[in-house]
């Protein structure tokens, strides 16, 4: 259901500053690409979809190191949010397949704003451009000296130092958000903090790069797959990877993320009274049937079950779908990721092979280890025992009925 969207001053300010940065601050080469191309100009898209805390950030990071790919610096949800394709335009993150009341040309250009090509040589200027593109989304309530920041970063000034001089906490920005703030964040942003960052093997797009495969992932896409297929990429070759993870591990990660003062906030939905949560903003995806009161652990279970239910129900919108277990990504990385590379017809990449051997740690809430959920096993099992449909149906369809396989 689509609702009439109320005035949103901070989003309007973010839009204005974002246009200023893209039209007047970033380098001329980037401006040229954004004036002539949109994200649907790519020949093919590899779309990773999963529930939040399902391992998609790690898989995305591995795949974006392939030298035949292009990718944004992280999840692309913020561009939907900036354009109002989100709550409160809708009651949840579900976007109807026929929803067309948005500026399609602007959204398709915005989605291209920080996409770069993977190249061993890298390009620091591209990373600086993308840093500036994200600033209006991460600090929408501030008027910042964008041109001065851009020039300072190109001259080698520390961005950490630049943020502090502007009175901004580095803990609220991307790669610096590696520890908790002193208290929960209370200010709504366009960007889902934290951990959006480029890597050193990215460079600015050229015309020829649109022949590469674009890799995209955002957990919120679970609720908008038919709309993405029909409205954004109706003529593009899309290959869909459905990444699954056992409910206990995913729910445990969600529970940790909600309780950390370092990000993952998405919406200001009003007063929340969730047992186990002291913050004021909703975290992660907003599933249909979301609640303001109750137990946080039950909300986390709902987020896992609803996301996968919607993915399972949307498969028919795509001709090419590959289901992959995150457990296999962890235990047999090379073979499992190799299957995805073959599925996407990417071919060989030396840089990719090196990264598969030693993948980065991305979007972690605690030091990764197998079956970490068993630290609060009784608590999680109690929540699972209370669950009914759609949890039980999804559990069977994803073949996670054997608890011994939950790592």
From TrEMBL:
Residues 10-23 have a biased composition (Basic and acidic residues). SUPFAM superfamilies: P-loop containing nucleoside triphosphate hydrolases. The keyword Transferase applies. Keywords: Transferase. The keyword Cell wall biogenesis/degradation does not apply. Residues 46-347 form the Sulfotransferase domain. GO terms for molecular function: sulfotransferase activity. Pfam families: Sulfotransfer_1 (PF00685). This is Sulfotransferase domain-containing protein. Residues 1-23 are annotated as: Disordered.
């Amino acid at each position: 259901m689509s609702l009439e969207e109320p005035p949103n001053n901070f989003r309007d300010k973010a839009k204005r500053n974002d246009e200023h940065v893209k039209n007047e601050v970033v380098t001329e080469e980037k401006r040229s690409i954004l004036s002539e191309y949109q994200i649907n100009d790519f020949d093919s898209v590899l779309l990773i979809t999963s529930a939040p805390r399902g391992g998609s950030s790690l898989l995305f990071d591995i795949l974006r190191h392939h030298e035949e790919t292009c990718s944004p610096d992280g999840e692309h949800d913020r561009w939907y949010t900036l354009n109002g394709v989100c709550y409160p335009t809708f009651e949840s993150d579900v976007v109807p397949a026929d929803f067309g009341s948005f500026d399609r040309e602007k959204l398709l250009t915005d989605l291209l704003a920080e996409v770069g090509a993977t190249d061993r040589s890298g390009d620091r200027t591209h990373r600086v451009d993308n840093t500036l593109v994200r600033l209006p989304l991460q600090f929408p309530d501030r008027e910042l000296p964008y041109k001065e920041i851009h020039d300072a970063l190109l001259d080698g000034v520390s961005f950490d130092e630049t943020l502090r001089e502007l009175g901004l906490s580095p803990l609220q920005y991307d790669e610096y958000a590696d520890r908790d703030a002193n208290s929960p964040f209370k200010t709504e942003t366009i960007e889902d903090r934290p951990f959006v960052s480029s890597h050193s093997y990215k460079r600015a797009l050229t015309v020829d790069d649109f022949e590469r495969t674009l890799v995209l992932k955002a957990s919120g896409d679970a609720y908008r797959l038919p709309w993405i297929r029909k409205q954004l990429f109706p003529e593009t070759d899309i290959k869909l990877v459905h990444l699954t993870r056992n409910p206990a591990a995913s729910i445990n990660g969600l529970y940790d993320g909600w309780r950390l003062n370092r990000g993952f906030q998405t919406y200001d939905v009003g007063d929340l009274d969730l047992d186990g949560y002291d913050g004021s903003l909703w975290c992660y995806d907003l599933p249909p049937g979301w609640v303001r009161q109750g137990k946080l652990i039950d909300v986390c279970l709902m987020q896992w079950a609803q996301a996968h239910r919607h993915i399972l129900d949307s498969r028919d919108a795509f001709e090419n779908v590959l289901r992959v277990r995150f457990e296999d990504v962890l235990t047999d990385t090379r073979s499992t990721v190799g299957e995805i590379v073959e599925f996407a017809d990417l071919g060989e990449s030396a840089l990719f092979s090196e990264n598969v051997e030693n993948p980065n740690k991305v979007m972690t809430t605690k030091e990764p280890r197998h079956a970490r959920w068993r630290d609060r096993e009784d608590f999680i099992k109690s929540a699972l025992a209370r669950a009914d449909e759609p949890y039980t149906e999804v559990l069977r369809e994803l073949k996670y009925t054997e608890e011994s396989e939950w790592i």
